[in-house]
Amino acid sequence: MRATVQQNKLFEAWNAKKMGVGSNLTREQIAHYQLHKVRQTIKLAYGNSPFYRKLLKNFVSKEINCMEDLQQFPFTTADHIREQARQFLCVSQSDISRIVTLNSSGTTGEAKRIYFTDFDQELTIDFFQQGMSTFLERGDRVLILLPGERVGSVGDLLIKALERAGMVPILHGLVQNIPKTVEFMTQARIDSLVGIPTQVLALARYGEMTKKTIQLKSALLSTDHVPDAIIQELVRVWGCQVFEHYGMTEMGLGGGLDCETHKGYHLREADLYFEIVDQRGIPVPDGQEGEVVFTTLTRQGMPFIRYRTGDLSRFLPDPCSCGTILKRLERIIKRKDGLIFLKSDTFFTMSDLDEKIFAVDRVIDYTVTVDSLQQATQLTVSVWLLGQSNEAAERALWDALYRVPALVQARQAGQLSVSIKIIYSKDTFFPSASKRRIMELKDS
Question: AMP-dependent synthetase/ligase domain spans which residues (predicted)?
């Protein structure tokens, strides 16, 4: 893998160029630029968005002399978008070139719709181009395991970005047939791939099981939480570097990216301003965990001011050894709505299960349901394993679950029962492309 400090400094230089400053970027220059852009965004939103005109009517007269002054302004939430998406628009409907619908489990049960102009999508292409250039080289062949048939889709934007960077994008789409995709990878001389963590894991484990030789320099995992257990397995099977990307549709698909040190995300500070806030909504010091909040700085069609993401993380105060001055966000491993509390007053997360279950050989996916309506909480885990019946794997799964501290404590207190359903699949099953969540049954 040929990622270098120099390549990672290219991402910093790109941010500096967008900020209109020289190559020796400083935190003072970043703060000055972001202050100017936040003022512009508030002016744009208040002057053109019916939603923000109402939300900010008692705040817009407040002066913003430093970034801390933004703390006086109200938050934007996912429910706001679900209920009033069109009211966010700062342009006419005819200027919108792409609408992304996000089905979610929000309190209203309604979908979120995120609107983009051509300019907004160009911002994403530009970010993708710079991000991919930090670990790829011109001429590299990149397999895209994401939807890309529709204009403006994530795969389509990635294709445009890779072509501009002098790389060779190969659109495959989501994995729907593991053997066929693995066979294609053995023949297409792939240097790198971009895909969903569980789908890429399934390819690696199936390829190893069937003794298919796949040589990759790198893999970029995106669209969902990336467990360390999956990263370690890809490194073991393919011998490649594994990179992560942090983003969500509301951010314009990209918020930050991993470097070769793999110690957090370097943030896209020319386009986004990030905060970390506690449960009361008060910003916390660097190093302290809280909810990730962001404000768009360059978005035209549907800007967001202090949008609460639901992701839990912290700013890493120490400089990254790659040398960049860009702010660094710790890897996202949990969300506010992903904390599952048990009757024993302990909680666990999907990440806690991921690290134990995906470490078991041949596992390619699983789902979990928590039923809190019974006297003792019922935890049901359905696990998909490659190959035929495997008693060792079954024992390993039970051992894995009983290494999750919250589950052990609740079980010892007689407040939890656990059942595992194992489904064996030679090649007919493929992991879902949806974000993985724990399904919770409880009193409303």
Answer: 104-294
Q: Measured between alpha carbons, how far is residue 146 from residues 89, 181, 183, 194, 200 in Å?
A: 28, 13, 18, 7, 11
User: Alpha carbon of 374 to those of 182, 343, 353, 371, 419: distances in Å?
Assistant: 43, 11, 22, 7, 14
* CATH class of the domain whose range is 339-441: alpha beta
Fold of 1-335: Rossmann fold (3.40.50)
**Single-letter amino acid code for the residue at 173:** G
pLDDT tens digit at each of 444 positions of the chain: 344 455 557 899 999 999 999 778 999 999 999 999 999 999 999 999 999 999 999 998 888 999 999 999 999 999 999 999 999 999 999 999 999 999 865 444 689 999 999 999 999 999 999 999 999 999 999 999 999 999 999 999 999 999 999 999 999 999 999 999 999 999 999 999 999 999 999 999 999 999 999 999 999 999 898 999 999 999 999 999 999 999 999 999 999 999 999 999 999 999 999 999 999 999 999 999 999 999 999 999 999 999 999 999 999 999 999 999 999 999 998 888 888 888 767 889 999 999 999 999 999 999 999 998 877 889 999 999 998 888 888 899 999 999 999 999 988 888 889 999 999 987 667 777 778 888 887 765
